[in-house]
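Predict the holo structure. Ligand: EPU.
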Amino acid sequence: MDYKMKIAGGIPLHGKIEAQGAKNAALPVMAASLLLKDATLRIHKVPRLHDVITMADLLRDLGADIFYEKGEMSISIPEELSWETPANLVRKMRASSLVLGPLLARCGRAILPLPGGCSIGSRPIDLHLKGLSRMGATIDLVHGAVHATANGLKGCRIYLDFPSVGATENLLMAAVFAQGETVLENTAREPEITNLVQTLKAMGAIIEEDGTGVIRIQGVDELHGEEITVIPDRIEACTYILAAIITGGEVEVTNIIPQHIDSLLAKLEEAGANFTVEQDRVLVHPVKRLKAVSLKTLPYPGFPTDLQPQVMATLSLAEGASVIQEGVFQSRFLHVSELNKMGAKIELQGNTAVVTGVEQLIGADVNATDLRAGAALILAGLAAKDETSVFHIGHVWRGYEDMDIKLQQLGGRVEVIPTEPLSTKVNGAVRKEEA
Ligand code: EPU
């Protein structure tokens, strides 16, 4: 079943909403549970998202017993685990590759069908595999699947050619039981990495991480069950901040760690947005029109690639020309042609988009090609004149919990409807069933 979001645009959003727990922190933390033996990891503030459900299904397939209700998840890992991951689940979500490191560390072997390319670029996992090989794993590719084996991983020094988030997480988890010391250099420094480090440390791992891109791990023999909380989702929070700005609304977004969103707040200030930052929240006040600003996406603490499409939608209505460079992914511009269908004036030159602000976007039928592109089109639809339908809205459910309901709470006139023959399973009902 496919769905679209129908949006009646032009209504300023008003009110207060709370950001969910971070998708990109919850997924690696869930994968880390595989390092346990006969123990339970309890996780608070787990967002109800398709990617979380996929990861839960994957862990269950490997032998985990999972209970999940109202954001509380407990994952019990038995003595014996399977190490062969099912292709149908791995292909659904690239973050499935995060089970490779923990499985190898815990079981001494793992089979992972190679996740292919996706709509935001080729996204290989060569850095993950190179690092695991340095730790002593034997990696073979058999019929498109990674077969990894290790007779005890060994601590070593690994310099990442690029500060990949997934490679840092996988190697971190693999190193927890490695013999001696592992030093990871040029690691990703995203807040989600720190959340994983804190989780592993709470479970008994010995790790030093100070945010400089060097992480030291001393191998231990076992980990124990724990209870931890997922950090707030900085990308979801910023998407609602931008939704308030693009509609000229007044919205308070709570459950924010302001330091995590500095790069966006700095750009918004430069663009003339009006907002107040408090300890754990941001209040957006209305402004007429932003000024154009230029930016380049980079690994944290640089401007996040996961906000590039939403910021582009917002700047498509700014005064002047903004230049947006994508510095993390090979091609993350599939939203450009869709925004242009709505009257935006965006030109692409390689990995750079020149966004000439227009005074008004006009509602249209557009396609969400991936999660953040979908969010960008929803923002554009909220601001546009007339009605917009964003098709394939399922992409958005991978990362935004109840986005239609949250927007409705803020006064947005949005509705999710099936685009295929009729079913009684609409909105909440489907999600409830899937959860
Ligand atoms: N890369 C390689 N080789 C590797 C690993 C990465 O060339 O072995 C390249 C990728 O192709 C890409 C770049 O490095 O061009 C960044 O990839 P990275 O590994 O850092 O990203 P990821 O771990 O696959 C996570 C998030 C993404 C987010 C990126 C960058 C999760 C589950 N996913 O992906 O989130 O865009 O980091 O910040 O944490 C999203 O939420 O919409 C999303 C795509």
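The chain is about 30% helix and 25% strand. The pocket of EPU is lined by residues 24, 27, 94-95, 121-128, 162, 164-167, 188, 305-306, 328-330, 371-372, 399 (CB under 6 Å).
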